[in-house]
Amino acid sequence: MTITPAQIDLWRASASESQNLEFKEAATQYDTRKLCRYCVAMANEGGGHLVLGIADKPPRPVVGSQAFPDTQDVAEKLFHWLGFRVDVEAVAHPEGRVLVFSIPARPKGTAYHHDGAYLMRSGEELVPMSEDQLRKIFAEGQPGWLENPALKDVSAQDVVQWLDTQAFFDLLRLPYPTDQAGVLARLLDERLIERSAAGFNILRIGAVLLAKNMRQVPDISRKAARVIVYAGESKMQTVSDITGEKGYAVGFAGLVQYVMGKLPQNEVIEGAIRKEVKLLPEVVVRELLANALIHQDFDMGGASPVVEVFSNRVEISNPGEPIVPVERFIDGYQSRNERLADLMRRFGICEEKSSGIDRVIEAAELMQLPAPEFLTSHRRTIVVIHGPRAFRDMNGGDRVRACYQHCVLQYVLRRQMTNQSLRERFGLPEGSSNTVSQIITATLEQGLVKMDPNAPDSRRYARYIPAWA
């Protein structure tokens, strides 16, 4: 396809760079090794366009590029270096020469590498793909773990005996069929079971969601959620350690209530009345539990979602490293198990795409809790929700994290962070503007937020947006 100056201007007007669009200035030359690495990373992420000769920060002026004067020569060299073809086109934009590299998407079930490194982008950096991501790519086109049978060749009566079909129809808000054939037909339509030569196979996704007792199904017994309660702020003394029995969908309400019942109580004063409240609001627990169940890596054997309750915090973790960078949890969405996520949404257990973490951050702000921590450890994703803590007791990391999350939340809500909005988030009085300015400055210095380029050029009226926006 021929790329026109109008197309270049359309790309320049994009709110931000994306998975499929990257700008580089490169006025005179561009490192060929870096070019190869970017081509590999973009191909692994679905292909797109790398554009040389345009500043990568808004308003993205055309600076022009004299790099790679012979486009046919560089295209041939790229094919030799990469093993796949990249189209290279020089566009005569009125403001300067622009070079566009059109990078194809990788074939299904394949990932590209450069010098042995399977690359992807994380913000402005190129990073190696994780084992989890590569395993998922190489398994494309094959039935996933959830789509394989948990129980084979069972009778129609066994299906109803193993699965809580009454709860299934209740969750879908449908009347229970008048006969067994109607129940089985719906389960078949939802691909939770399948016909076999000797009866039916109950697929793992059906068992994981609807099992009356996960422990009695060896194939999924290790996927049941586990709740551990500790006596203090460390793991030195365990009060209780319970593993759930019911499938995720039919047992979700009970799991939430069990966790809420194990949370410590905090004493607060409202209108001169002293009362006890739970460490965390239920909406936060609910959303994070749903996320942990849905986004786990089911291919990891012997690992399950875990809730750990301490006297001052709750940690919820799930198997597998995240496929969205943790700093983009608030605004980004990509599900590792889309069919499971879709069913959980239809059951009313989780929110629409990408809104769950927003609600967690919003609830933390309304309750003026410390900002949640989103962490990765060895093949696990961890969310830490801290109980109430006065502003004076928050350290610098707590304050910067809250500033960044507040900025992203405002951006998602089509607003911008200001000194006033952040002051209100912390519940500070009007005279605290200088303290809040110091927090914003620290967050700017860490490269997490930036000045809104469309705001008035005045410190007093400054607005801020995420650094990646």
From TrEMBL:
Question: Which residue numbers delimit the Schlafen AlbA-2 domain?
Answer: 17-129
The organism encoding this protein is: Pelomonas lactea
Q: Which GO terms describe its molecular function?
A: ATP binding
**Record protein name field:** ATP-binding protein
Instruction: Name the domain of life.
Output: Bacteria
Q: Which InterPro entries match?
A: RecG_C_sf, Schlafen_AlbA_2_dom, Schlafen_AlbA_2_dom_sf
Keywords (alphabetical) are: ATP-binding, Nucleotide-binding
Which Gene3D superfamilies does its entry note? 3.30.565.60, Schlafen, AAA domain
